[in-house]
Amino acid sequence: MSRKRQTAIFDRLADDGSAIATLTHNYPAGHVIPLHFHDRDQLVYASRGVMTVQTDGGAWIVPTHRGVWIPKGVPHSIAMSGAVAMRTLYLQPRLAKVLPRDCCVINVPPLLKELILHACTVGPLWKSERAQRHLVDMIVDQLQVIQMVPLQLPNLTDSRARRVAETLLTEPGNRQPLAHICKTSGASLRTIERLFLDETNMTFGKWRQQLRMMHAMRLLGEGAKVTHAALDAGYSTPSAFIAAFRKTFGTTPTSYFETFARTPSAPT
């Protein structure tokens, strides 16, 4: 999830006057949308597949039927794990005032899902049109009470902590003791634990758990079996991964992906 410094491209929308502009696009497995930014707030929704959104601040994993909120002006790239059906809403800045000015992954409940899919079939939504104004208001109302999902992996700035992070990012299933990884990166375990907590507001252990879960989600999105995803991500056993997955998503990995494989996507 690390990324070499790139120049972000300003992706100007063809329509810049509507309350909400939309984009419907299906991407093949492995496709990467290069670093870019918009002059609107953006809700990117995965009706199928798994996406990884990367910014200077960190990485966000966006599994099926979750969305990622990307505020205006934030440079980001998006990588696809498996085939992805992406449905995007571009909102006039501050239309959804309660959402943060930082990226976050959000739950997309059934009503909001249908509103997103319907909006993408309608096209740009204008408040001057009565029916479209009601649709805009319903979308905004749903965003006011949205729940955020802890699927973020913050980046680090301290060189010692960054070396530890890069080691684990390169090999999420690394089973070396944390103390050994820290020592080879030039700091004690205690120092690294303090740096991770100070910079990410997460314990070192929690950051590593997030990394493992996000890596496993990408593998599952690519079609990997649960056992392979669990062991490759560094879980001691598949059952340990299934328990962690259930705690995060409320169901097993197999049930989660089978359910959404049966869910039809909106037409392209």
Automatic annotation (TrEMBL):
Q: Where does the record place the HTH araC/xylS-type domain? A: 159-259
Keyword DNA-binding in record: yes
Q: What is this protein called?
A: Helix-turn-helix transcriptional regulator
CDD domains linked to this entry: cupin_NimR-like_N
Starting at the broadest rank, the lineage of the source organism is: Bacteria, Pseudomonadati, Pseudomonadota, Gammaproteobacteria, Lysobacterales
Q: Which organism is it from?
A: Dyella lipolytica
Q: Which PANTHER family match?
A: HTH-TYPE TRANSCRIPTIONAL REGULATOR NIMR
Write the record's keywords in alphabetical order, separated by commas: DNA-binding, Transcription, Transcription regulation
